[in-house]
Amino acid sequence: MEEIIDLLEQNRLSELKEILLNENPIDIADVFEEFPKEKCLIVFKILPKDLSSEVFSYLSPEKQQEVIENITDEEIRFIMDEMYLDDTVDFIEEMPANIVDKILKNTSSDKRKLINQMLKYPDNSAGSVMTVEYISFKGSITVKQAIDYYRQVAIEKEETDICFVTDNKRKLVGLISLKTLILSNDESLIEDEMETNIISVQTKDDQEEIASLFRKYDITTMPVVDNENRLVGVITVDDIVDVIDQENTEDFQKMAAMNPSDQEYLKESVFSLAKHRIVWLLVLMLSATFTGFVIRRYEATLQSVVILAMFIPMLMDTGGNAGSQSSTLIIRGIALEEIEFSDIFKVIWKEFRVSLIVGMILSSFNFIRLYYFERVGFGISFVVCISLFATIIMAKVIGGVLPLVAKSLKIDPAIMASPLITTIVDTAALMVYFKLAVTFLNI
Amino acid sequence: MEEIIDLLEQNRLSELKEILLNENPIDIADVFEEFPKEKCLIVFKILPKDLSSEVFSYLSPEKQQEVIENITDEEIRFIMDEMYLDDTVDFIEEMPANIVDKILKNTSSDKRKLINQMLKYPDNSAGSVMTVEYISFKGSITVKQAIDYYRQVAIEKEETDICFVTDNKRKLVGLISLKTLILSNDESLIEDEMETNIISVQTKDDQEEIASLFRKYDITTMPVVDNENRLVGVITVDDIVDVIDQENTEDFQKMAAMNPSDQEYLKESVFSLAKHRIVWLLVLMLSATFTGFVIRRYEATLQSVVILAMFIPMLMDTGGNAGSQSSTLIIRGIALEEIEFSDIFKVIWKEFRVSLIVGMILSSFNFIRLYYFERVGFGISFVVCISLFATIIMAKVIGGVLPLVAKSLKIDPAIMASPLITTIVDTAALMVYFKLAVTFLNI
């Protein structure tokens, strides 16, 4: 990095070029992000054209826009020719309208047609993730013909080791790996060597379902077909890694009571961050007032034994934590397809037994602390510990059940996480607590 | 599924075999999981041997054990010959000692040596994830020689389209894809065609770091070298998908205050579930008592204005939720390497501005509700809303800062999530609340 800056400042560009040629394009793109505009453009222009367009595809949208605004139409045309179609579509989606015009003007009409078609697929669908740069041929040709064909077209295509086999109507009938092509006899027919037991998805399928197919079948390349089973594209596993990250980020956000956003934190505006957070905070604040009503109802009880208030935070926090432990495990189990709605009774029975153990330990611990160390008297120690025990059982069972119920109602289980569970359990916990206090302390 | 059961019951085994031959081995393994032992064994034995060992590698450890206990030594030997080494190691790690003996007895001594070596790598290290079934050759041979060599050895190796190039001391010097092999001139030397700009990892590197390399460089195959840069194995992207799932599950568990466990929920024992949950619950329960001490300190205040207790849950819950929103975004940003410790001032400034907006909206909303609808009087409405405002600011700034501080202290940022933030914010919120109450309500 410092070396690059030094060379740039001393204008020793040919030495700089030598160094950059040995670097990974992704690392060069990283360096660009740190550089001021003028320096980027100088470096960009000394790179050989195929390397510069590869570096370009790894830049952040902000840098890409900066570059596009400052290079010639001819240079834009070269980048558009070189970039893989799925990267091009991702890039165009991030650009403002005037830049998009400038880009499309410099794109060949064939490619422009494909780009427009891909821009129409709904967000997060197979169509929006796939690339159309796959290799396909007919089953009636020989292995040798297939390899010759591969040699002609492969340079332009995205790195993949799977070729597809289609019939006369472009319908997908099989696939064959480079490995099989190399291992097969030159004169064999493709249709005799190909794999016909294929897993494929449709253009409108959701990316989350596609990710679970990749996970389940350990595949690296997935064909995408239209509703007449005609091959239209391919999804590779490196794109699925991004999908998995994105889906997990969404789950984390929903579980922390936020509307999901796919922007990076440091790049998202303050207003947009606030907007994604405010709705759930309002809803949960209003539901927390129900817990307040429970306290108001027992105002007289509290007035005569004010010390009861001292244990409210401990009961609320422990209940919330116990519940969110359970709901998190169940939500995650549902996301990884390890737990289904039909397991609900197994979950209840398991959580009940876990909560007995956990509740017993926490309550005993608390009783000793309250009775022997804090010396708040037997009555109050007893009421607090029984309430704690009951709270933990409720919290764990509710935390285990609600995500499954949500799933069966086709609501995203992730919203049944810590914040919502906490609010529900809080109210129940305080009701039990005051009820027991009134009964046992004769208030 | 029903069809399979019907055919089994009518003992029409050859028809059944026909059907199964067209199924994906992973789907057959799924069917096995639902079947009682006797049926599994019947089906297992009618499958051709290579298919049956593939099905075997996809079974759950419970089913694998069942099968191993009920087949002959010869059948075990066949499975051990056919299974990929990394699957074999995963399988052996799950078996009880007597089964492991039975298995190793029926494994060739070469393979046994490799298995023992791989069992020694630490959990979650590159060595424990890699497979040793890669293809490598010298750079001095021609493309044609390389393809001939590939034809001889590839059938036995795990599906991969990358071959490695090593020198005389087995040191890794390059890699070449099947695509490049096919596209290159038969007489070219491998060393002229290979890619030398390689990203590799060492056997002891942590799988989480390896996953981020896969993510960053969009690669599908990663060579693993020892500390003298000698090639010892390879990690493929399908294994990395599992690693990403596992790392995310761990983060979810830590963020819900649990010690991480890599067992599936439905398969984990009640005792083990309780053990993973109890420690954090105890710690957090004890810290929540600090919040209780704040209340005790203001017992007199509470005695004279009992209604103040009514707003404790709302303040605690909203503070906790506001803080966990921020901490979740920061924790996730750190995990995806989008946020670093050096961004701490950007984060503070951003969270401060977000909390101003969010705090303003929630407080105004609350003031209107308390003053006009609940009619609790201006003083109390005012104190509650100012406390709420202050709580939200504290919560968001603390929630943003603590994960970054943890990261810089080399503590896992994921533990700075909802539960811990909630407890810290609770105490601070109630201190502000009572302080303001004493000051403004002249108690």
CATH-derived topology of the largest domain in chain A: Tetracycline Repressor, domain 2
CATH class of the largest domain in chain A: Mainly Alpha
The helix/strand class of chain A is mainly alpha
- Work out the strand percent of chain A: 5-15%
Give me the CATH superfamily of the largest domain in chain A. SLC41 divalent cation transporters, integral membrane domain
Evaluate the radius of gyration of chain A: 30 Å
* Number of H- or I-type helical stretches of chain A: 22
CATH architecture classification of the largest domain in chain A: Orthogonal Bundle
Q: Which oligomeric form is depicted?
A: homodimer
Shape of chain A: elongated
Sheet with the most strands, sense and barrel status of chain A:
3 strands, mixed
How many DSSP-defined strands of chain A?
Answer: 6
State the gist of this model.
Two copies of one chain form a homodimer. The first copy, chain A, is mainly alpha-helical.
Task: Outline the structure in words.
- The structure is a homodimer of 443-residue chains.
- The first copy, chain A, folds into three domains: 119 residues, MgtE N-terminal fold, CATH 1.25.60.10; 101 residues, CBS-domain (Roll), CATH 3.10.580; 176 residues, Tetracycline Repressor, domain 2.
- Helix content of chain A is 66%, strand content 6%.
- The first copy, chain A, has 22 helices and six strands.
- In chain A, the strands form two sheets. In chain A, strands 1-2-3 form a three-stranded mixed beta sheet.
- The interface between A and B is large, with 110 and 110 residues.
